[in-house]
Amino acid sequence: MRVTVKLFATFRDGRFKVEEKNLSEDSRVLDILQLLNISPEEVAICLVNGKDVKEQHLLKDGDTIALFPPVGGG
């Protein structure tokens, strides 16, 4: 299956902004995190098709995953 992965803020450092990935049919968000060497603890917000999900969420063909680290500011 094919999914689109969007990275934000510091997750883009040394990676990419948007990229399509080919995954096996039983893939979860956690598989994407492992592929990108991002630990689940580093993820503040994980959206699949605009809905907040956990790392065990089962992905479907055509999904869009957006990953956000904690962001500080004032």
Largest sheet: 5 strands, mixed
Element order, helices and strands? EEHEEE
Level-1 CATH class name: Alpha Beta
Determine the structural class based on helices, strands and strand pairing. mainly beta
In terms of quaternary structure, what is this?
single chain
Unreliable parts: none
- Tell me the total number of β-strands: 5
Question: What name goes with the CATH superfamily?
Answer: Beta-grasp domain
Q: How would you describe the shape?
A: globular
| CATH T-level topology | Ubiquitin-like (UB roll)
CA-based gyration radius: 12 Å
Helix content: under 10%
Measure the end-to-end span.
Answer: 40 Å
Quickly count the domains: 1
Helix count from the secondary structure assignment: 1
Mean pLDDT, nearest integer?
A: 95
Question: How would you describe this structure to a colleague?
Answer:
The chain has 74 residues and is mostly beta strands. The protein has a single domain (2-68), classed as Beta-grasp domain (Ubiquitin-like (UB roll), Roll). Helix content is 9%, strand content 30%. It is built from one helix and five strands; from the N terminus they run ββαβββ. The model has no long low-confidence stretch (mean pLDDT 95).
A few lines on this structure:
With 74 residues, this protein is mainly beta. It is built from one helix and five strands, in the order ββαβββ. It has one helix spanning 29-35, and strands spanning 2-7, 18-22, 45-48, 51-52, 64-68.
